Records
---
Amino acid sequence: MDIVKVGLLGFGTVGCGVVKAFQQNGALLARRLGRPVELVRVADLDIVTPRPVAVESSLLTTDAAAVLDDPHIDIVIELIGGYEPARSFVLRAIANGKHVVTANKALLALHGEEIFRAAEKAGVDVMFEAAVGGGIPVISAVKENLGVNAFQSVFGILNGTCNYILTRMTDEGEDFARVLADAQAKGYAEADPTFDVEGIDTAHKLALLTSLCFGTRIDFKSIYTEGITRITALDIQYAREFGYKFKLLAIGKRVDGEIEVRVHPTMLPVDHPLANVDGVFNGVRLQGDFVGPVMLYGYGAGMDATASAVMGDVMAIARNLTTGSGIRTPAMGCPQDAVERLAVRPMEALVSSYYLRVFAKDQPGVLAQIAGILGRYRISIESMIQPLRHEADAVPIVLMTHEALERDVRAAIGEIDQLEAIRGSSLFVRIEDGLE
């Protein structure tokens, strides 16, 4: 049989992993596919800097057109990242009749509909297993093996940087800034960590996951997104006393015909499986009406794990080419015209239990004032910790509430922070107990 020829755009960390997979397991691929699959071109603006893998100079080019316009290349792997020129390159590959594999969650979160429609019209595959969860095969699981299920919820720890930071803060009692600096020194966090620690990277992935699970289109801008920068070592200590752990959680739920999509620090019971996904690992928990709860766990990033997901997509496309089966599974699990338009539930309508942390002057009557404001907004206190003095003129007051409306909690916190005795801005964190 003819060789399936592959071109690679982007020779960074994951690109090196893809090259390594071709070099190390090329014979394994050919045996499993029944035909050889070869990497015939690698394009990057920098082909001079040494990499951890060696590539013949004849395969390297700085010209993306050498991949995109080569009529002999069947599959283009896009690992450039970002929005442009990645968007233009992917659309050009599709227009040239090439199948596309990408790990670019940001691109698909913002331009996925355009790309998927172009691919459907051209009769080519766009696959993106590596865009969510690194080496965890969650995309293919949702689209294929679990496809009969009407999903009620999807919860995910989808950013290894944030999970590493929160794990270190939990295990060692260190504050955010110190752990972040150490994560940057070890290469777990970028020099500019904004996309990670502010939840943006997680929101990109959630946009794809919820679109797949619920068969709808999620506008990235409609996802409530909050990062972990305000979580302190004290908050983590208090959470432990209540029996909870902090995680940056991606949450998608179907509620009364609408979709909740939100990314924020969340307190989970310490015995919940997701609470024990630590370090740089990722975890995804799905709830289907037939299968019930399913949890997937593994490395969410890294050269080899992400390359594994990329190569899985390459193999799936190669099998389609071998059998002549065409586009066996649409990019979003169903034809583009079958994708629904479900409303995104306003964040103010969320009903949850909450963790509240307030710094107040150490004087009589403050707790009564706080309780009075909460009562006026129909927020009842489940339990409370009032630790020893924290600063010269302020003590932390830490509360756990029963279920309340987010709109009421925000309004109550706004009033509490206006009290003369309050120092700084108060923190509230949502709690997920059942995760159903």
---
Amino acid sequence: MVTAVYPGSFDPVTVGHVDVATRAASLFEKLVIAVYETPSKGLLFDAEERVRLMKDACRHLPNVEIIKFSGLVVRCAKDVGAGVIVRGLRSGSDFEYEFDMAFMNRRLEPDVDLVCFMTSQDYMFVSASLLKEVAKLGGDISEMVPPNVAEAVYAKFGLPVQEG
């Protein structure tokens, strides 16, 4: 049985994240989505909220488990019995970052491989940081995040849910 781990801050969960999770869940027997508890960037949602939002967004995927983690991704992978780390790529700069990270992870844990999914063209421009900025300014993000996430994001900013 091949288990994969899909790590990220997921702040907030986007349709791109769900797309990668859905495609990865179709290829691996088990997919563990690992929500990073303490990324270096400012967060809109705490780890518990991000886990809850991801669980709701991925409830259609029966072979997916969502956890939170801290520390190195490769250690998380080993802890959950994953031999694969899943990442999504939107651009060349994402590739360069993941390329360098893959070699570092290979040095730390030689038995953990990296599998990258190219984003669907519909989601190439979707980034969590841009979504937060658009929502904060009252813009419509409803087509870029799951419905539960749109509600939560607007609530954080004290705004009514925008209707696409």
---
Amino acid sequence: MNYKETISWLYSFEKFGIKLGLERIMHICKKIGDPQKKFRVVHVGGTNGKGSVCRFLQSILTLNGYKVGVYTSPHLQRFSERFVIDDKEISEKEAVSLVEKVKPIIDEMVKDNNTPTFFEIVTAMAFQYFSDKHVDFAIVEVGLGGRFDATNIVDPIITIITNVSLEHQNVLGEKIEDIAFEKAGIIKENVPLITGTSSKSIDVVEKITKEKKSPLTLINDSSRKKIGGGVDWQEFLINGSLKEYNVKTSMVGKFQGENIALTLATIETLQMSGVYITDESIIDGIEKTMNPGRMEIVGFEPIILLDGAHNIAGMESLKKTIEDDFVYEKLILVLGILSDKNIQEMLDIIIPIADMIIVTKSHNKRAAKPSDLKKMICEKKVVVKNEISDAIDYARKVAKKQDFICITGSLFTVGEAKGYLQKC
């Protein structure tokens, strides 16, 4: 198989959708020698902020000389973004080799009417890749929920649950307590948990940590304070368990303070368990970290911001960031959302602050039709562009230097937008 054939074969499993459960991933991994047991894992779950925390951790650990793998999903532009070791994506040759290893197992499962999902296959590939490359640490991001997510066969040294808000209610449950219970399913016996959960969700999480005798570190508003910043940088004072940290980041959004606090609590827990990490690497690692497609500024005059806000909490954070951190004359919103999201609730949050809305869609099969989005938006001028490239061209045409273009609604929308802007 060549790389194109490999990717095509993998994506042929997307039609099987989401099938939560651990039996299939355990079967695949057992057949290839349980690679997930051959390296130290930090398991990262929660609603928002997972990707940023993963990248902050990787940056700090890599600066200390450790070989660090990061497994995240979905990818923004390239499939290879899902498998990263020390900032380097997996090569096409390596991806082909991994598929060739698991394909006979998958073929047999299909024959036995036990077909795995796309995510289960890719997760097994990630575990094998990190094992083959002998990583010191693997930072593993949960795909969906936690309890029955394919990543939940790892035995982590630390678990992180960033926060909990309403998402995937058709799968995880209608109430915040139900979603918290599913996400708390990654908590393991006697394994430290770092979390930024609050209100009703923290009650669920605390109950489970007590049952499992898992040491709990809770990150809240008192854990961090923003002390400076500009259009494309921020400075925070983080109150750790061991000391205070004065850190700078080029990642915008005040909520990054929570992500950094979660990261530093994790780093301190590693230090207390004997992992050597310098203060210099913490400061430098935070400052160097980037998370493409999440509050990413890709242009000035006018400012162009990419943010993959794809749920209610993400859209609320985006709105607050725009209101608090940016000065502009008009906000031009380029919006593309997946049809299975809480669309009306997301629109109700962001639409009131926009001066112009351009609705569009990614090439993802789940993308909502722009005409449907337009019907859900009232009292504003709405422009329909069926191609993201056309939506961006129109936004740039009508925008003045003092305006602000925000492209959001889905990571798939943002990924395609980023690719197009890189060509311009």
---
Amino acid sequence: MGKLEVGAISDPRFEFRTFGRNFDEASFRMGRLSGIIPEKLWERRSEEIYIVSSTNDKNNTKIRNGKMDIKTFVTEKDGLEQWNPLMKGEFPISREVLEKEVFPAFAVDMPALTKDSYTLDEFLIMVRANNLLKAVKVEKQRYGYMVNDTICEVGNVWINGAKLVTINSESTVIADILKTMKDVGIDKFENINYLQAVKRVIGMIDKPFAN
């Protein structure tokens, strides 16, 4: 199997990610152990909206730059998670896609859809009208690294304004992730994905973070 390249399309990856208040020591080690990565990935910033459902932990939905991306949980192995793309769409979005793909992914009752297509604002109105769904603003400031041929990052994340730090390692090769976790010093932490992190911040899930 060839080396994994940052930014390249690959087979579905396994991932370890965690969230907490401070990972300074692990971040320092990740930076020192990192190989060279493209300059465009040194630092990235984005503003996103996550749509979370109290009835579903298997599908992770986010909206960025007017585009919707839904990933679905596939499997867990050695404490690592694998997610696959389930749906990609762009606003305005068709009624058919909302009926067949989007709202079924939330596992909630279908709202009355009377139009052929919906803008982002119209979609968010429907989301906010459902007490099982929440639209959550997530701002990200991410710094990319490459350790043991795994794609890594350290990020500052603001979830509805609440700041957390995240650190991760992902690859198609599980052994490389496990080695990176140990080398960096994050192997003792819980694997917490973005969907879980958002739900914990807004109180939809009553669990703590890694620290």
